[in-house]
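Q: I'm teaching a short session on how sequence maps to structure, and I want students to see two examples side by side rather than one. Could you give me a first protein with its sequence written out and its structure tokens following it? Keep the formatting plain so it prints cleanly on a handout.
A: Of course. Example one:
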Amino acid sequence: MGAISLLGITHHYEKEYSSLSDFEPYTQPIPGSGESIPMTPVPGGTFQMGSPGGETDEGPPQQVKVDSFWMATYEITWDQYDLFVKEEIEKLKTHLPASADVELQADAVSLPTPPYVDMSFGMGREGYPAINMTHYAAVMFTKWLTAKTGRFYRLPTEAEWEYACRAGSSTAYSFGSDTTALDKYAWYKANSEGKYHQVGRKKSNAYGLHDMHGNVAEWTMDQYYEDYFNKIAGGLAENPLFLPDQLYPRSLRGGGWPDEASELRCANRMHSIKRWKRRDPQLPKSRWWLTDAPFVGFRVVRPATQPPKEQMEQYWIDAIEDYN
């Protein structure tokens, strides 16, 4: 057994997953609750990222290498996200694993302000994807989950997301390029009836990941750049990541329930806009909640090799620097 110190908390953690024989699906319990997050292994590799179709921000395609990671099998649901929204610092201490040595700083984990309306917009909560959180809030959820479990969770990079979505394919969708099959895999404009749906009700891709196409668009860690592919050009790009350095725009992937079929392609890219906070009555606008993005959600990843403490702590600093 080893130990890591993160965000003022010292945990004991299980062995590193250093070989593929250890790299298996698992379920991450959320301490202090009956909720858990199924995690699917995504073995690393090299792939052609982007689209050859001439879309302005999807190419030219580049060779990209990503390391192995686990990805949440489903989008984060309200059942899981509400634990974070309703958490209290003292409860966080109480609910850490019994094996943990706890020394929690008062400001170690930032917690959301209460939403001012029902952010599900009446579309459903139990088993449905959480929506309308800002990029900052999604990042803070991963920090909270890391503090709760002692395992390093974060948002996926754009490259990791597309690699996981493709699941070894090179076609427009993970299952091929024929949109007539899309109904089997995705909730989108043609079949969603104007709302999101419970996670996992459609077929998974070859890795076993559900709702990578549609249902809700998913935050990635990256700042959005229209010329992303020119920025990573010049040979094999290894684990590319553009940490945010300004509030807008941030990158999302996957498309959502209001979108056309073409917006659900593996290579399709979305970005955040100020209008997603248009009806926010607060001044300044909330750093936690969107009011006009009921199609935005997220899922988490965990690197197969947990990075050193200093690298994890620097990640949180860099990930939210422009919000401070």
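Q: Perfect. Now a second example for contrast.
A: Example two:
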Amino acid sequence: MRVARAFRLPIIATMTALALSGCMRTTGPVAVEQPQSDLDSMAYGQPHNPASRGIVSSSSDLANSGGAISALRASFAAAPPRSYAPAPAPYAAAPVAYDTAYRLDAGDKLRVVVYGQEGLTNTYAIDAGGSITMPLIGSVPARGRTPAGLASEITAKLRNGYIREPSVAVEIEAYRPFFILGEVAAPGQYPYVPNMSVESAVAIAGGFSPRAQRDRVTLTHTDNLGSMRTVVPLGTALKPGDTVLVGERWF
């Protein structure tokens, strides 16, 4: 027992010395809170987030980072403010105005809408006699009328014993064709396109032939007042149903 007590004190002293030597070791890098970031406020305009932390190994690193931030602050202050022009708005084509004064004739295709009546709503073509034929009311004269005038006529016929308060709309689905004859590559009948001119009609027909008179043509227009034939330049507006005659030059 005395021998064990003799060895106990040196062992306790040795363990105490080892523990104290471990506490005296040099620690590694310590996480410290960074000062307010000027880079965030200058580049993004946002306040610094205090929750963000960085690893700094020594006070010299803090001094160097402060110098870099000062240099960046000076460069931002010296740079002139940049202005950005707004992006151009996308181009939107203007819609073609609807010709409410257009007079209907044979060859026009119409879209007749009778609201609430699917059996009557349909596409109707004006026949050679100048009329359209609809269910219930039969033949309705259309030649010489405007689309609005034809809608009024259909409304009156439907109200006469068929529908109490009919609501009707008439739109032009396709215009009657035009004709081009004479000295062009492909004379014949072609679909009319709104805002056409005599020159565009010649282009649709394949252009002038080698013997064509190229400065003027003969245009025949027919309406409810009759037919009229005139010599016109190439820039003259073309109407549905018109006939263009390209003459032959003499030399």
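Q: What should students look for in example two?
A: Point them to this: The chain has five helices and twelve strands. Also worth mentioning: Helices lie at 2-23, 38-43, 59-78, 147-159, 198-204.
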